[in-house]
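Methods: example folding runs. The two proteins below were folded one after another, and each record is reproduced exactly as written to the output file, sequence line first and structure-token line second.
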Amino acid sequence: MKIKILTAIVLTLSLSAVGHAQTPDKAKLDQFFDRLAEKNKAMGNLVIAKDGEVVYSRSIGYGQINGAEKKPLTAASRFRIGSITKMFTTAMIFQLIEEGKLNVTDTLSKFLPQIPNADKITIAQILAHRSGIPNVRRGRDGESNVNTIPVTKQEMLALIVKGTPDFEPGTKHQYSNSGYLVLGLIIEKLTGKSYGEALAERITSKLGLKDTYTATGNIDVSKNEALTYMQFGGDWKQMPETHPSMLFSAGSIVSTPGDLARFIQALFDGKIISKESLDQMKTIRDGDGMGMEPFTFAGKTFYGHTGGADNYGAWLAYLPEEKLAVAYTTNAKVYPVAKIVSGVVDIYYNKPFTIPALESVAVSTEILDKYVGVYSNPEAPVKLTITREASTLFFLPPGEQRPAPLEAMADNKFQIEGAVVIEFDAAKSQMTIKRRGGERVFTKEK
């Protein structure tokens, strides 16, 4: 009798646990991604995984477009993931720390003494973007294609050595890709292997991540890598590529959402680094951890990282309490990636979420041409350029190398969703830039 009662209790508890398990509304997720695809607002792949098991996946758009010939993205398509690379770099640094080959308190002078402030900068400060190492880039202003040209690690290091520190180590927080390039050089020095070889040996081969590796050249469609596109008035146009040598250990990894979900699950399961090391990665200061950042979706705190360059991007988020991973990769950013991921999580938790209409307004080229020009404001030390290609206006902010397409909200009102709204007054030859911090009027130069 006792055995029967015990069995009944266990069965009841098991059924209760199943009853409380989250079942995603796959139909609504499909409707959301169908809308994004139908309105040309995104191309990419999504994976939602619970405790290592995929509960939803979706691919929309194309990995390669040649005129009318389009190759659809599939779950096997590979994407550049940008700064999510930093999570892999950080994990390898902590592996070396656990092996006794490195310490978070070690100063940079032990490895690269030629870098300014090397005797003051610690490994911990570089990991947490508190080193003051400046973001450097090769080339001069106006050289729009400079990022497409390969560069050696020695050339990038020389630029860092020549650069002026942004601040005294430890006194501020400022995101630094160059700092993570330095960490990659330290990994190579301590392992005696290239960054890519260290990644394969220490992480990807151990976890069976067959679609994750470092890019060494341009996007290779023969390896099922997705080309990068931008939306131009209803048509997709291929974008120039930042050469991965520019990104190195700060952003050169190629992967899939499936591999990314497996990676972050293994990271939190203690299969890559210890819990103590993971806790250091998760310690947030000034909104950032060590190779990891927090996100709030549906009122819950996720951990992970974002990445992007050109017009590709990726987002990896993990909720430890529920062992829930959300991984999204895109080769064409139009609708903001943050809104896509937030919408996915809201749908997953059955939160109120209205699938956006995503209706665009068609504006004639005759009207658009009235807005084209260079705009300035005597109180602002910058000039803003508006150009047109086909039926799309483009906005080039100061300091940027590539213009961004503007979406029409009305004949005289345009936006980069989530970032800026621009209103034109052709009669006055003016445009008003509206951001969260306020608005400013610029006048077209004659």
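Second run, written to the same file directly after the first:
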Amino acid sequence: MRVKINGVLTERELEIIIGCGADEVGIFIGQQYASPFFILPSTAARLVKMLPPGICPVMDTHITDHHELLSLMERSGIYTVQLHCWKQDEVLKLRERLPHYAKILLNLFPASPNFNHEDITLCNQIADGISVDCFNYEPGNNSGSYGFPDWEAATGISGSLNAPWWLNGGLCAENVGNAIQKTGPFGVEADILLRQDGILNAEQCRKFVTMAKNNGSN
């Protein structure tokens, strides 16, 4: 089970993520919609240099233009990019210009009223991995979120996903085991619920990673 912790803001938070045993860290750059997690590309580059071998940095972004994405990747030194917003033609142009080791992950929002099932087919054709968010609506949707994690939305599409997929949205140490058992993802990712008063909590991170790695068993 791959475990990704999102939204690192400081060197201290990165140390927490490294110490808890996460496999991936989500670093948010390229903001277009409201979010508490975005940092500058220069800050991202400094954090990436702190990462030990074995922990993969992932650039989470709202940007869709392939020229801007390439610039952000070069400035940050992150060559796995997770697109929370995406357009097929821009993803294909990005793919053509990326080095062979770079990876593209695409977000799906099956709990959103705007969800288009044709996006599953597109993801299967052009993505190296897929993040299935069963809590939030797509960025820019003013209605915000579904209100609670809808694992049924993930199980409803998981059989149609050809690429490895991560379960995302509304996950924490208390529910990740149940979510994994119900949906069977390749990996899981979490962010806001691992924080207390806006600060990443080391104990919550450790518990989340442990429960995820053990598929919910202590």
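Comment on the second run: The chain has a mean pLDDT of 95.
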